[in-house]
Design goal:
The protein is of the alpha/beta class. It has a single domain (25-248), classed as 3-Layer(aba) Sandwich (Rossmann fold). Helices cover 35% and strands 20% of the residues. It contains 9 helices and 9 strands. The protein has helices at 30-43, 77-87, 99-103, 107-116, 156-159, 165-170, 186-204, 219-222, 226-240; strands spanning 7-11, 16-20, 51-54, 68-71, 93-98, 121-126, 175-182, 209-215, 244-248.
């Protein structure tokens, strides 16, 4: 990361420009996910009302958006979001979590929120590794991917199989919307933005819990260039984690 460079993010409805040192390595797509969230909040005119809860990990840098943000305990973001939503039922509440934060240490909290159908939106950043601690094996590491803890590549015998979070969420009766997107090109950006928009609309309509998983490049820990990382997502991650909507109902239950 070049400490001298700056990145300006415009939050149009608030008529502000946030200038900051980019909190990510070259090619990291977490800030792009943050931009999508910011644009959707503006489109729905809830950017001045929403409350965000981030977990612990590299994904928490998405909290640079100009919304009220709380950083939860590791794995506890969905629990904190649940409490906030129940105290402020008319407030849009969403989490931004990493694959390890949500599906490993936070698995109990995540499954609990799904089973109760909490009226929150969960956005999962899936970069297939523990991005902020060295790239170790995560619940979403694709089969065959090499990491510091799977130097020969992930195998079923040593690391089990990746968790398909969007497919899992869709099986819960309390979930109204579950989808997975990727940011390979402008079309993918717009499609993923549409998923995030639908997720927030489901929450506004009190239809049930909404969930969006977004495949996100991690060039530094994948030991690939940004361009090579996009090819890796296309050739290795999408076959493991197919894109699309897995559940979209008017009302859960």
């Amino acid at each position: 990361m070049n400490g001298r460079s700056v990145n300006k993010i415009r939050v149009g409805a608030l008529q502000r420009t946030l200038t900051m040192i980019p909190p990510g390595c070259p090619g990291c797509q977490h800030l792009t996910i943050g931009r999508i969230i910011g644009e959707v909040l503006e489109d729905l005119d809830i950017d001045g009302k929403a409350i965000a809860v981030t977990g612990i990990g590299d994904h928490s840098t998405i909290g640079v958006l100009n919304v009220d943000t709380i950083q939860g305990s590791h794995g506890g973001a969905t629990d904190m979001a649940t409490a906030i939503k129940r105290l402020l039922p008319d407030t849009p509440v969403y989490t931004v979590q990493g694959d390890g934060d949500c599906l490993a240490i936070g698995a109990g909290s995540f499954l609990g929120a799904l089973s109760r159908g909490e009226l929150i939106t969960i956005i999962l950043c899936n970069n297939g590794n523990y991005g902020s601690t060295g790239g170790q094996l995560a619940p979403t590491t694709p089969m065959g991917q090499k990491t510091p803890t799977t130097p020969q590549g992930r195998s079923a015998a040593s690391g089990g199989y990746p968790i398909g979070a969007a497919e899992l969420a869709a099986t819960f009766r309390g979930v109204a919307y579950s989808a997975r997107g990727a940011l390979l090109d402008p079309r993918g950006y717009q499609r993923t933005k549409g998923m995030v928009r639908k997720a927030f609309q489901k929450q506004i309509a009190a239809a049930g819990l909404s969930f969006v998983e977004i495949l996100s490049a991690c060039p530094a820990n994948w030991h690939l260039s940004p361009v090579e990382s996009l090819k890796w997502i296309e050739e290795q991650m999408i076959p493991e984690f197919p894109l699309g909507e897995f559940k979209n109902v008017e009302r859960a239950g």
